[in-house]
Write a structure and sequence with these properties.
The complex is a heterodimer of chains A (about 110) and B (about 110).
Chain A: E1 4-6, E2 11-14, E3 19-25, E4 30-38, E5 45-51, E6 54-58, E7 61-66, E8 71-76, E9 85-93, E10 100-101, E11 105-110
Parallel strand pairs in A: 2-11
Antiparallel strand pairs in A: 1-3, 3-8, 4-5, 4-9, 6-7, 7-8, 9-10, 9-11
Chain B: E1 5-7, E2 10-13, E3 19-24, E4 31-38, E5 42-50, E6 53-57, E7 64-68, E8 74-78, E9 87-94, E10 104-105, E11 109-113
Parallel strand pairs in B: 2-11
Antiparallel strand pairs in B: 1-3, 3-8, 4-5, 4-9, 5-6, 7-8, 9-10, 9-11
Chain lengths: ~110, ~110
């Protein structure tokens, strides 16, 4: 079993829809949770960075962390074709130097 | 633009050869991380340097090595290349060394081994 599980999709939604992405993890030591967006053949771009449980909102993006369930989510409201990309969850522990990544979910927003 | 630069963008070479990938971190960042991204393995951590010293190692092969120089740029050396080493290699940087630490990724180097 992988340390971080993420459904690879693909996920296809119409423009304006809410995109819902999630990851589960097994390592209870994870404290820091991130979402990256990666366009084809480009470097991952940091979208959201959260610590421990709770919600964080930034524009059209909302990240949720539920440590008791070892489950994190990313919601994209009013999705746009420019949101079409692969979304990667990542996490680390207090003393971790590395990020543990999910496999990534490929999202297509149809105009 | 994350502020992290990587060269070259693309590299095509033959099996058995040696290549060097270069990374310049964001201004002020002391940590540099190297990751490998392949279709079947996803993003895998290779190695981290902090202010010139090696801090952590992941699943890095013995044929691979890295270093960080006094000006904080880093190089990843890959030798005795095999077909399976074909992948995207990313460098990331962050201000500090520990877990509470946003990592910013460069554009990557695409390595093709023929």
């Amino acid at each position: 079993q992988k340390e971080v599980e993420q459904d690879p999709g693909p996920l296809s939604v119409p423009e304006g829809a809410i995109v819902s992405l999630n990851c589960t993890y097994s390592n209870s030591a994870f404290q820091y949770f991130m979402w990256y967006r990666q366009y084809s053949r480009k470097g991952p771009e940091l979208l959201m960075y959260t610590y421990s449980s709770g919600n964080k909102e930034d524009g059209r993006f909302t990240a949720q962390v539920d440590k008791s369930s070892k489950y994190i989510s990313l919601f994209i409201r009013d999705s746009q074709p420019s949101d079409s990309a692969t979304y990667l969850c990542a996490m680390s522990g207090w003393d971790d130097y590395k990020l543990s990544f999910g496999a990534g979910t490929t999202v297509t927003v149809r105009a | 633009d994350s502020g992290v630069t990587q060269t070259p963008k693309h590299l095509i070479t033959a099996t058995g050869q040696r290549v060097t990938l270069r990374c310049s971190p964001r201004s002020g960042d002391l940590s540099v991380y190297w990751y490998q991204q392949s279709l079947d393995q996803g993003l895998q951590f290779l190695i981290q340097y902090y202010n010139g010293e090696e801090r952590a190692k992941g699943n890095i092969l013995e044929r691979f090595s890295a270093q960080q120089f006094p000006d904080l740029h880093s190089e990843l050396n890959l030798s005795s290349l095999e077909l399976g080493d074909s992948a995207l290699y990313f460098c990331a940087s962050s201000p500090r060394a520990g877990g509470d630490n946003e990592q910013f990724f460069g554009p990557g180097t695409r390595l093709t081994v023929l």
